[in-house]
Design brief:
The chain is of the alpha+beta class and 589 residues long. The chain is built from 23 helices and eight strands. The strands form two sheets. The protein has a six-stranded mixed sheet with strand order 2-3-1-4-5-6. It has a two-stranded antiparallel sheet with strand order 7-8. Helix 1 packs across helix 5 and helix 19 packs across helix 23.
Length: 589
C-alpha cells in the first residue's frame, strides 16, 4: 500500500518512520540505476539524476496513540496537513518532451524531432539481438522518445531491476491486444479453425513480423482449454492484438510499426537475387531491385489480408475495435475509518486486502482483462468491450459480499463502491481514455449519488455519451442487478430476438416517454408496441415482455441524490449502449 497506519514504540517512532522513507527511496534508486546501466549508460548523469531524484514524495506524521479512533484521525489529519506543505523543487525541462508523459525532457537531448528519432532508432537497434524479455521496449521506428521516469517504467523488468516480480507482472498488453482478447478466446475455443489460423500466423512469420508479446500477458486466455496444437496456441497468444485487424495489414502500417521486419524482407529478397547485401542489390540492380521489393511485399501483405478475412469468415466473428478502462473506488471509506474502533478498522482493512489481492484479480482475468492496479477499495483494469459489463457487475457484487458482515460504527452506513468506465477505440490515446475514465468515476459518485456505475463512450466519430445508474433496486420487480438487465439486452440483440433497430426506435420516442405525468403502465405499453414492431428472427414474446417491463420500471427509479426519476431518455441511452456492445462497436463501419 502507499498509505498505511502503524502502531510503534513511542521512543522509536520517528527513527522507524525515517527508516521506512529511506528504504522506499533506496528501493527506487536501485531500480532506476539498474535501468540506466543496462540501457541508458550514454545518457547524461545530470539529466538522469534531475529527473529521477525527485520522483517519490514520502510524507509521514507521528501522534500519540491511545488505541482509539481519535488517535488514528489525528494521525490522518497531521499527515494531510504535512502534505499541504509539499516540497517543490524548481526544475527546467528543456527541448523535446517525452512522448508518453509530455512533461519531462526526453533523453536524447536533441533539439529536433529528426535528430531525436534517429537517436532512439539507434538506441533500440543496440538491443535488438537480445531475447524478447531483455529487449528495450521502445518502438523501433524512433517515434517513442522517453524521459528517465517513463524509460524506467518501460524497462525495469527487461533490465532485471525488479527481481522480486515475475516477468508477467510487467507484461503490459497493448490496448489493441485488450480489444482483441475475446476474439482470440473464440479462436482458442473453436474446433474447426486450425488450418486457417495456422495459415494466417504463418503469413505473419513470412513477413518477418515478430511475435513480440508474452503469451501470458492476458492471463485469462491461458486458462482456456483448446484443441489447437501448442505451437499454434503460443503463436496466437504471442502476436500483438493489432495484427488481427485488417487496418494494420497494409504496407504503410507494417513499415511504420515493424521497420526491422521490412529490412529483413529486403535482405531476403536481395539474397534471392544472389546479392550479399541490400546495398549490393541496389548497386547492381538499381530501381529494379526496389520495384521488386515493393512488388513482393505488396503481394505478401495482400495474401495476409485475404487470409485474415478468411479467418473472420470461418470463425464467424472478428475482433471488436473498442476496449474499456475501468476504475473502482469505495464510497465514504474515510467516514467509516474515522468512526471505527481498532477492531472494526482492522476487519475492514483485512476484507479489502483480500478483495484486492485475490478476488479483484481473478474477476478481471476471468473476463480476459488486465489488472493494472488493485489496492484496498481501488481497482484499475483494462477490459475487452464485450466482457466489460459482466466484470463491473461481478466486482461490485464481490465487494459487497466482502463488506456485508463487517460490524459498523454507530451512525455509519455500510461501505459501497462506485465504478467509472471509459469505452474507447483501440487506437485512441490511452491518456485520453484514462482521463475520461476518471471523470466517469467522479460522475458515479457526485452526479449519480455513489453506489453507482457511470460509463463514458468515446466513439471514433467524435461523439461522446455519458450514462449512469445505481447498481440494484428492489421496487416492483424481483431484485436484479440493473447492469444484468443491460447484459440481457445485449444478448437479446445478439441472438436476434429483437432487431438492432429496437434501440433507435426507443431512443426516437424517449423524450415523449420521459414525461413525469405518464403512468408506468402507459410507458410499458409503448415499449411493448416498439418491441412488437422490431421483432427479430428468433422473437420470444414472453422473454421480450419480461425485459421491457423491467426497462419501464428502471426508468422510474430515483437518480442519484436527485428526487427526479432516471427517465426513459437515460434508459434509452443504456439500450443504445447494449446495441453498441452487441454489434462489437461496429455501428460506424
Amino acid at each position: 500500500p502507499n498509505h498505511f497506519i502503524m502502531s510503534l514504540p513511542k521512543n522509536d517512532s520517528v527513527k522507524i518512520a525515517e527508516a521506512v522513507e529511506k528504504s522506499v527511496q533506496s528501493c527506487w534508486q536501485k531500480i532506476e540505476k539498474k535501468v540506466k546501466k543496462e540501457f541508458f549508460s550514454s545518457v547524461s548523469d545530470q539529466l538522469w539524476r534531475r529527473q529521477t531524484d525527485n520522483l517519490l514524495e514520502v510524507y509521514w506524521a507521528v501522534v500519540e496513540d491511545d488505541t482509539t479512533a481519535t488517535a488514528r484521525n489525528k494521525a490522518q489529519d497531521a499527515l494531510e496537513a504535512r502534505k499541504q506543505l509539499r516540497d517543490f523543487a524548481y526544475v527546467e525541462e528543456a527541448d523535446l518532451k517525452c512522448s508518453l508523459c509530455g512533461i519531462r525532457q526526453e533523453l536524447s537531448k536533441e533539439t529536433t524531432n529528426k535528430g531525436a528519432r534517429k537517436w532512439w532508432q539507434e538506441k533500440v537497434k543496440q538491443h535488438l539481438n537480445k531475447s524478447h524479455l531483455s529487449k528495450l521496449r521502445v518502438k523501433e521506428d524512433g517515434s517513442e522518445k522517453l524521459c528517465a521516469i517513463c524509460a524506467v517504467k518501460r524497462s525495469a523488468v527487461a533490465a532485471k531491476a525488479i527481481s522480486e516480480l515475475e516477468k508477467t507482472d510487467a507484461s503490459f498488453p497493448s490496448t489493441s491486444s485488450i480489444a482483441a482478447a475475446t476474439f482470440k478466446a473464440n479462436l482458442l475455443r473453436s474446433e474447426n479453425l486450425e488450418d486457417e489460423l495456422k495459415g494466417y500466423l504463418q503469413t505473419l512469420k513470412n513477413l518477418s513480423i515478430p511475435a513480440k508479446i508474452e503469451k501470458d500477458s492476458i492471463p485469462g486466455l491461458l486458462s482456456i482449454r483448446t484443441i489447437l496444437p501448442n505451437e499454434i496456441q503460443e503463436d496466437l497468444l504471442s502476436f500483438d492484438g493489432d495484427l488481427f485487424y485488417t487496418e494494420t495489414i497494409n504496407n504503410n502500417q507494417i513499415k511504420e510499426q515493424f521497420p526491422g521486419a521490412f529490412k529483413e524482407l529486403e535482405i531476403k529478397i536481395a539474397k534471392s537475387y544472389g546479392a550479399s547485401s541490400v546495398d549490393e542489390a541496389n548497386k547492381v540492380l538499381g530501381s529494379d531491385f526496389q520495384n521488386e521489393v515493393k512488388k513482393c511485399i505488396d503481394f505478401s501483405i495482400a495474401i495476409a489480408r485475404k487470409k485474415l478475412i478468411k479467418l473472420y469468415q470461418i470463425a464467424n466473428t472478428r475482433p471488436s475495435k473498442y476496449y474499456a478502462a475501468l476504475m473502482m473506488d469505495g464510497d465514504k471509506m474515510g467516514a467509516f475509518f474515522r468512526a471505527a474502533n481498532n477492531k472494526q478498522a482492522q476487519d475492514l482493512s483485512s476484507q479489502l486486502s483480500n478483495f484486492a489481492s485475490r478476488e479483484a484479480k481473478n474477476i478481471v482475468e476471468q473476463n480476459f482483462g488486465y489488472l493494472v492496479y488493485a489496492g484496498g477499495d481501488d481497482v484499475l483494469a483494462l477490459l475487452p468491450l464485450d466482457t466489460t459489463l459482466k466484470c463491473t457487475r461481478e466486482l461490485q457484487k464481490m465487494f459487497k459480499k466482502n463488506v456485508e458482515h463487517i460490524q459498523l460504527p454507530e451512525g455509519i452506513d455500510r461501505p459501497t463502491t462506485s465504478i467509472g468506465v471509459a469505452i474507447a477505440h483501440h487506437t485512441a490515446p490511452l491518456d485520453l481514455t484514462l482521463q475520461k475514465m476518471r471523470h466517469a468515476e467522479k460522475m458515479a459518485k457526485n452526479f449519480y449519488g455513489r453506489d453507482a456505475l457511470c460509463i463514458s463512450v468515446l466513439k471514433r466519430s467524435g461523439e461522446e455519451v455519458c450514462i449512469g445508474t445505481h447498481w440494484t433496486e428492489n421496487v416492483n420487480v424481483d431484485s436484479q442487478s440493473l447492469i444484468g438487465l443491460v447484459e440481457e439486452m445485449v444478448e437479446v440483440l445478439q441472438k436476434n430476438v429483437l432487431s438492432m433497430k429496437f434501440a433507435y426506435a426507443v431512443a426516437s420516442e424517449a423524450s415523449a416517454l420521459s414525461n413525469d405525468s405518464m403512468p408506468v403502465d402507459a410507458r410499458l405499453s409503448a415499449l411493448k408496441r416498439l418491441a412488437n414492431r422490431q421483432q427479430g428472427k428468433y422473437y420470444d414474446q414472453m422473454r421480450v415482455e419480461s425485459l421491457v417491463k423491467k426497462l419501464a420500471w428502471w426508468s422510474t427509479l430515483k437518480h442519484g441524490s436527485s428526487e427526479t426519476a432516471l427517465g426513459m431518455q437515460e434508459v434509452a441511452q443504456w439500450i443504445l449502449l447494449a446495441r453498441f456492445i452487441a454489434n462489437s462497436g461496429r455501428d460506424e463501419e
